[in-house]
Design goal:
The complex is a heterodimer of chains A (130) and B (816). Chain A is built from six helices and no strands. Chain A is mostly helical. Chain A has one domain. In chain A, α1 crosses α3, α3 packs antiparallel against α5 and α4 packs across α5. The longest helix of chain A is centred in the last third of the chain and has 27 residues. Among the domains of chain B are: 41 residues, no CATH class; 120 residues, no CATH class. The longest helix of chain B is centred in the N-terminal third of the chain and has 27 residues. Chain B is globular. In chain B, 33% of the residues lie in helices and 18% in strands. Chain B has 816 residues and is of the alpha+beta class. In chain B, strands 1-29-2-3-7-8-9-10-18-19-21 form an eleven-stranded mixed sheet, covered by helices on one side. Classes of the chains: A mainly alpha (130), B alpha+beta (816). At the A-B interface, α1, α3, α4 and α5 of A face α1 and α2 of B.
Amino acid sequence: MKFLITTLLIALLSFLSGLYLPWWCFALAACLVSALIPQRPFLSFLAGFLALFLLWGGLAWSIDTANNSILSGKIAQILPLGGSSYLLILVTAFIGALVGGGSSLAGSFLTTTRKSRDLNSPGPQEDQVA
Amino acid sequence: MRIIPFLITFLLTAGLIFCLDTQWDKVPPLGKFLSPQHGCWQNAEPAGKDFSATLSLPGLKNKAEVYFDEYLIPHVYANSQKDACFIQGYLHAKFRLWQMEFQTHAAAGRLSEILGPGEGNSYLKYDRSMRRLGMVYGAEKTLARMEMDSLTKGDCDAYTAGVNEYIKNCKESELPLEYKLLNYRPEPWTNLKIALFVKYMAYDLAGHDNDFEMTNAKSFFSKESFAKLYPSAQDSVDPIVPKGTAFLPPHIQLKVPATADSLYFYNTDTVTARELKPEKSNGSNNWAVSGKKTQSGSPILCNDPHLSTNLPAIWYQMQIRTPEYNIYGVSFPGAPYVIIGFNDSCAWGITNSERDVRDYYSIKFKDDTRQAYWFNHDWKTAGQWIDTIKIRGQEQPFYDTVATTVFGPVMYDPGFSGFSDVPSSRSYAVHWAANDSSNELATFSRLQSARNYPDYKEALEHFQTPGQNFVFAAKSGVIALWQQGQFPAKWKGQGQFVMPGEDSSYMWQDSIRNYENPYMLDPDRGFVSSANQEPVDTSYPYFLGTDFPPYRGLTINRFLSRMDKITPNDMMKLQTENYDIFAEMAKPLLLRNIDESRLSSEEKNYLNIFKLWKLRNDPGEEGPVIFNRWWFHLQHLIFDDEFSRTTLPVMPPFESTLLEALLKDTAYQFIDNVNTPEKETLQQVVTEAFLRSIPELAQAGKDDRLTWAKYKDTWARHLLRLPALSRMHLPIGGGTHSINAAKQFHGPSWRMVVQLTEKTEAYGVYPGGQSGNPGSPYYDTFIDYWAAGKYYALWVMDKDERENKNKIKWTVHLKP
């Protein structure tokens, strides 16, 4: 549940920051959310990664659909990705996800303690971490 | 808090962001570029995008409306010419901002600033060439003249304000794609940029000469050979003003310098510098037929300017209605006004005059500092300017010191030999007419509201460089064509070669007066036409230069003189005519001289295709490919042996020269290969040339490129030459010698047919689309029609059609 909320919150704040701020500012949002909702570092990374993967991938996909892939095919030749619109969407999503994951992970280290990590280390009961 | 893991992940992520925010060589900053809310995705225009809006633009004087039709062509309703210019600037910026700035950067010699120094410093050489030619200095002089004319000053101010209004409100995400690809931002627009654009067109159309090549050829070849390689007249030309027309005696008696023979015509100095040259075939066709030759009884005017078939297209189509005029046509993103078009009373179009208005003078400097030069028996102090050329990716700008003389700037000197790898031992100053103060836009500002012939004449008075053939037709029935420009009055041969620069005797002595320019007004033959051919016969009292293509003009005049009861449809067919009159003359010559006994049966197959060819460069024909290769090898077999003996820049003779020579003289002296003991005959070289084409034709057949359109491979090419943003392999015929002059990257950039009946009936098409955005469905709207030779009916929107929901797709309401 916490994981889901984190992911959605990162996605939402990233989207909002994208409307008004430079492209990389979503990293601050991801960092902040992960700092405020502590989780195991790996889960924080995953939440940031997934949030941005879905956000950037989803936005790119919907823009591309509305555009009938006129532009993506051209960009995917220049970059070069063999002219594949899907590959361009995937690369877009992955780049966003990488930054999202990284900044989310950094954020998680701001509030988690070694103790909480130790508590978590057995693995499966991550929801117990407070 | 866990400091160390935090710091590590923080630094790694920050480093990643830094990498994704930085340009790596040609790869744009990928994070910024791919961010769906900032980067290239924002340029992916949704199909069916709503362009309607209500905007408040503080620079406007009054309310205005822009109605867009289904092709995204704007129909502007404004209350004054100034408001119209403001809106035009705004629309140009909205749909073509990157292109207009890039072109003016190119004009100002600022490509390196955006693109880096280029391979082998090619962009830097380009920039230095443009600046040394005086493009910026010429633009500044033009700007001063533009601003002296209150009409053009007001219009340019309004246009610039319109462009800046758009730039000011343009968010980073809305920037044109190319800015994102190249990672830079637009700067504010200025009136100087308009002047730079005007100079760019001057360079494109009047920046071509062969002075260095001809100087070398004159020194290398004997006088007799030279005369045969570069004759001063063409047999096949049908001038713009028919042969035999009487001309006024010249207003000035030109003084040929006393030293002309010894220091000029028989001088054997050579030049190692290589010039930057625009596309040679920046030509065009235009004509007007009078009512007595048309079915409707009203004149029809046609124009197709041949320019580089760029994307975004060089033209932007629009209608502008103000209380004073109602005009439709094409405009240049980067400048106000409609350049080619029509209003409710008349129509006009332009072709290039191809006159030689750029000459070089050899300068003797006192020493390497180039601060003093020998002029009129004394050392004269040279002027100097220093150009600062910023180079992307390099800390230090490049500083170029340019000396100036009474003739003009020193373009080539020991420090700069243009595109040659050999340093230039001498210095050459350039005198280019485009650097003389002028205001060409004044012509177009006045043509917009022209009603009749005197208005057109008055508008033309302002036009200096690049000299153009202005065709005109009015609803009153008048048809006319004036070759207008400020042309130097030259004595025969002046400026054909580099001239001595040690005294004033070789300078341009005066300009030809406007009334002396070649023209035709309502001629008995019922039509006027031009296609960049020589404008007059040899009885014209001034020297015009020698580089004029004869064949399109000949074809047009032949067709027009035979036609009667002409309809707009006939004119569209003529504009897209693929007939090749050059081939018509060359084919019998080739067939007369081929020795079929030397051909295998496979080779004879190709010959048979050629024999059956009907001389039309249609897309699916194989004949034009065979002819093209055959003539190519014939030229090389005939001239290579002589020309390969020099490493200096020289120019092979024109195609027309070789054809006319062979038609007159089957023992043309250059047929003989000087490297062999035997004396080759025309039959031998014609047959040998054919045989040399065979492997290429066989290969073309294997590659499925033996048909003309595939072989020629016409593109609408993006300005950055990126194939992904270009439209390649267009199925279009024609070529250099056809009226439909579509070559690989060059061709009819706008085709227009206007019938001046009471309600104007007009058709047009250009190889591009109204939007400059490669992510827009309107980027290449018209290209397929253009290639297929089809036209769109041009819709001149009437006042009572403002509610016409079928034709108007979007409305933009503008208020101050």
